[in-house]
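INTERNAL AUDIT FORM
Audit reference: QA-55
Scope: verify that the stored structure record matches its stored sequence.
Auditor: D.O.
Record contents follow.
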Amino acid sequence: MKKKRFISAFLLVCVLLPLFAGCAQHSMEAGQYDIALNTGLEGDSYYYIDRDYAIDATQVEATESEYAKAEAYIKEQILESKNADTLGFDFAVDGKFFSEVFTEYTKDVKEAASDDIMTEWEVTYKKPGEVLEVSIKAVLYKVAPVCEWTVWIENTGDANSGIITDFSGYKATIGNAENGIYDVLGWGGGRDATVSFKPEVRHFTDGRAIEFNASNGRPSVRWAPYYNVYWENEEASWGKEGIFFSVGWTGQWKSSLTQTENGVAIDTRQEFLETYLKPGESVRSARMTLLFWEKDITRAQNIWTHFLYNYIQPKEDGTTLETRRQMNNNVYVTNLMEDATTDNQVIGIKLRVANKLPLDSWQMDAGWSELFGGNWWSSVGNWTPDPERFGASLKGISDVAHEYGIETVLWYEPERVSSYTAWNKEFMDKGWLIYDDAQSCIDLANDEVLDYLCNFIKNSLEENGIDWYRQDCNFDLLPYWKIRDAETEGENRTGITENKYIVNYYRYYDFLIEECGVMIDSCASGGKRLDLETQARSYPLWRDDKCNDPIVTQCQTYGINMFAPYSGQSTVEAGSAAMKYVSRSNFMQCTNFVYNIESGDKALIASVKDVMEEHVEYSPYFLGDYYPLTEWSDTAEKWMGWQWHLRDENTGIIQMFKRQGSTQTSQLCYLSGLEKDTVYVLTDIDTGDCIELTGYQLMTSGITIHIDSLQDAKIIEYAPKA
């Protein structure tokens, strides 16, 4: 591949072999391949890299042993479930747990579907005279060592059911009773901060429970709804194994993990649910998805992200979503959308096309509707374009974008309704709002509201010529669900509003995909809805509202790539001296280039074009295997870096960031996923300096990256020698 080269620092190998004008030549070294690595990093509560051996190209794919564990587990816990210890879920009715009585029910297991990707079963439990029926959708995947299930409880009778409590979509004990050392890797949520998506290893102590949970109804604020439990097991391949858990619930979820004499007991549920069911009503559990792995936790996370990206997340025109370059009028960066018109938006698109900027999509953020009080925040509930600025629709903008092959993205926030807006009056009169003084929440638990929303947004998308629907959610939903429970549902109906609301939220997203033919960018004040059910229907192209600091975006990228294979964020304005450092710090699967080039500054436009073209060149790597090369750190004194590797091409890049406060001049890195006998050419894309090393050397001896300047962002590309 042809690359642009810029002037920067040079490379040395840790064995101190010299560089020449061309590529230095090195011979193979003999010796044992699986040798222990010394990362030189201190273990602490945030250090997660637990790598005893180099992971080479032969070891990255899932093994038959891992597939067998997933198959055995779904059979034991869901399909067969012979006793209380092998029932993977549970709930109580009037204090009596289903695990105590489920053998009294007639159980029916039917294979519902099977293809090259998965086998799906429908499991039902029925009992004569009992109004509650239990049904389970269970899936075993053939493309990854993954199984999953979702549990439904439905009242199929003519009378109200008893009180349902303790509804756990997952309740079981995992691990090895003979080994008492367990660890849990979790990730912080989208907190609008450096610590968003921060990896954290948590240890069991003194029988105390480790808890992961949502915050006020948004699933990935306090914690991302993913965690990985692992332990030593001499009988497993490579002596280590674990299970990665995904909690698919876009509301108030909670997982409690407690170490017992038999392993780790896990209980995952909608945190607040205590309700009877009326005839015809149902409630569902979280979508529980489990990936079984051995040997190396980073390897496990790569298996997960490839599975999610290739088989779960939506396709665009039948293919996996490619990396993107987006430009937008984001209210957090430029505030331009509130002043937008058809004319200046069209001029903006044409300006970027004329300067040959490689643009995939044009986003119109908050502020396109008729404004109340002059700002977008208080205007949520007005969902027609401002007639003075745009006329009858935004199609004058989208038609121009489409003429140049550019997709359009339009922002909505339909769940929140501000006072004095069109929806506030209309919905209030119909009883469709959960009311608060400053703003209200639509009652999406109401099927009439869902039908209205589907029809309204479908018409809006068509009238405005929109390709990507962007949904935001800038408020906490749990307080509103509790209000509705208390005001209209009555006693013993806690959590019923949330459950119905979330089910209809999924139905709404499914409608947008199936009936409107759009892709979805799910935001929620940044990455506050990153659960699997949402990611199965959308992409987080705005993963966090904190985007104005390169160290922040480096830290967020470090963590989110371990569980979310595709995310987006914006660059920020930077002077020419910092342009490379800032832009590369914001390189990810979808980078939003929010540079204001309307001034016509030729130097700025040239710089923006350079960084966008560089993103085009190297962004395909961002969909490959991901290996952190340093510890996570939010201090200006530390370096941070990672490796991206494409298995099929056997190529990759190293990204390394030296921060302004660092006196460190070099960083030793050990690569992974390589072929041990292959000679790789590593090239500094800025200087063109290169060096040749075997996969064996790179994985066991490592490579040292030198940066002498005060601050820099390096990209080192490698590929097999021709």
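Auditor finding: record pair retrieved intact. The first helix runs from residue 64 to 80.
Action required: none
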